[in-house]
Structures are given as structure tokens and as C-alpha cells.
Amino acid sequence: GDITPKQLLAFKHKLGASDLDHETCNRILTSLRQILKHAEEAGHIVSPAVPRKFRTPSWKSRERWQILEPAEIAKLLKLAPDDIRPILGYVANTGLRIGSALATEHAWIDFSNHVVKYPASSMKGRQPHVVELNRAAEAFLREAINRGGAKPFDFSYWFVLDRWLELRKAFGRPTLRIHDLRHSFVSNQLAAGTPIHVVKDMAAHRSLAVTALYAHSSDEARRAAAKRVEIEVRREPE
After folding, report:
1. Cα Rg of the chain (Å, integer)
2. CB-side exposure of 35: number of CA atoms within 13 Å?
3. How far is Cα 41 from Cα 154, in angstroms, rounded to an integer?
4. Cα 197 to Cα 181: distance, rounded to the nearest angstrom
5. What sign has the CA pseudo-torsion 137, 100, 30, 160?
6. Which residues of 110-128 are buried (b: 16+ CB within 10 A; e: fewer)?
7. How many whole angstroms separate alpha carbon 4 and alpha carbon 48?
8. From the CB of residue 231, how many other CB atoms can be counted at a distance below 10 Å?
9. Which end of the chain is more exposed for a tag (fewer CB within 10 A), N or C?
10. CA distance 44 to 62
11. Which residues are registered as beta bridge partners of 130?
12. Closest by Cα among 172, 59, 182, 5 to 13
């Protein structure tokens, strides 16, 4: 309970001055953040804010992403153990970060309006966020609630991660991350034609520049776009 933000910042500076690459440093900071959060949830401390991660070039970050198409995600969910299928399905259909999804409280859910209202404290960007529930997301959420528990997803990140590691091996993607479900949600929304400013709000991104990192075009999309705006001059027969 004696850890202060100043000490954490000094720790980050030491990491940055070491011979570790920034990707490894960021994994250490993430682990530290999760440990402190777990200690806070257990009532041992009031967790201080961990400094932001080191910035990495956007091209390098995108290289690690693994984007799954909707049909691939459906196959993944079929292979998932029954206990974590609802949380994975909920994340895949809402684009929430796994930490925010796990924090879901019964009081935040409004099934009558098909939304879940997340307070700022549950979001990485510390801004309140409203999730619109599609039919699949609502079904996964109801399935979790029907199992009972103080919260819809009444288990820890480590519980999910332990099962995820086995799931991704069975799926044939041994390096797939849970966070790739969020990446896939954003990418698939853009590919489906959802306006980028709408996707930005759905993903709770701070700026359009972040959302734009997910935008990519296919041959089919370019051909369809070319046909939508087609200007020609017809000559009258002589």
C-alpha cells in the first residue's frame, strides 16, 4: 500500500533505460497494472495509476494484429470452453477490452433499451461509454447472468487467460491474443461499411486517427466504390 505514482514513474524510466525493447517493457507494465488491480479488488490497497506504455511505431503494432473474419470468430467460439464462451462472445460482439467486459455490473445493464452503460472508472480512456447490444451480444450476456454470480462475468482475467491459451492452440492460432477479438471487431465494422466516426464511438477510441489504423481496402471494395461513382458522356448517334 506504500507504492506511489512517483515510484511507478521512476520504475518506468528505469525500464526505458535498460536494454529491453519497448514491447517487453510494455508487457511488464501491463502485468504490473493487472497485479495492482487484483490487489485493489481484493481490498488490500487503493491502486495507484500505472504510467502509460511506451509508444511503438504504428506499423509495428499493426504487424502483430491478427484479424479474424466473423466466420472464423464463430468457429473459435464453438471451440471455446462453456465457462468462458459468453465473455469471449460478448467481447467479439461489442469490441470491448477484456478488462472492461469483466468489470460489467448488473446495474449497468439496460436490456429494455439494449445497452450497457459503462462508467468512466471501468474504461481505459476514463470516459463513460455506452455499448449497443446486438442480438448475439445480448444472448451471451444473458447466458452469463443466468449462471448466477455477483457479476455477469464473475471470474478473473487470469481464469480467462488460462483457458484462452489452450483454446488458441486448439484453434490453430498459437499466438492469437484475446485483444485480437477487439481488433477484429473494429476492422470488420469498417469492412462492412460502418462510418468511421461511428466505429470510433463504438470502440471508445480517443481519436479518428486511432480508428483509421484499422482501415484497409480489398479489391472487391475498390471495384464496388468505382462503380458507385461512374461518370460518362454518351454521344448521340450521327
Report:
1. 21
2. 9
3. 12
4. 20
5. negative
6. eeeeeebebeeebbeeeee
7. 6
8. 4
9. C
10. 37
11. 117
12. 5
Look at phi and psi of residue 148 and say left if phi exceeds 0, alpha if psi is from -120 to 50, else beta.
left
Euclidean distance between CA atoms 39 and 35, whole angstroms? 6
CA-to-CA dists, residue 198 to 171, 205, 207, angstroms: 31, 10, 12
Kindly tell me the sign of the dihedral angle through the C-alpha atoms of 201, 34, 93, 139: negative
Grid cell in block for residue 86: 459468453
pLDDT number for residue 158? 87
**Cell numbers standing for residue 117:** 452503460
Q: Which three cell numbers stand for residue 186?
A: 473494429
**Residue 159: helix, strand or coil by DSSP?**
helix
Q: What mean pLDDT comes out for the span 76-89?
A: 96
Instruction: Give the Cβ contact number of residue 95 at 10 Å.
Output: 22
Phi–psi pair at 132, nearest 5 degrees: -85, 125
* Cell, residue 134: 446486438
Of the chain, the percentage scoring pLDDT greater than 90 comes to: 47
**113 close to 95: Cβ distance less than 8 angstroms:** no
Q: What is the pLDDT of residues 30-75, one digit of tens each?
A: 888 888 888 888 887 777 778 888 776 544 444 467 889 999 999 9
Question: CA-to-CA distance for 65 and 177, rounded, in angstroms?
Answer: 9
Closest CA to 77 of 67, 90, 66: 90
Distance of CA 7 to the CA centre of its chain: 29
Give the three-class secondary structure for 88: helix
Closest to 89 in 3D by CA, of 149, 147, 135: 135
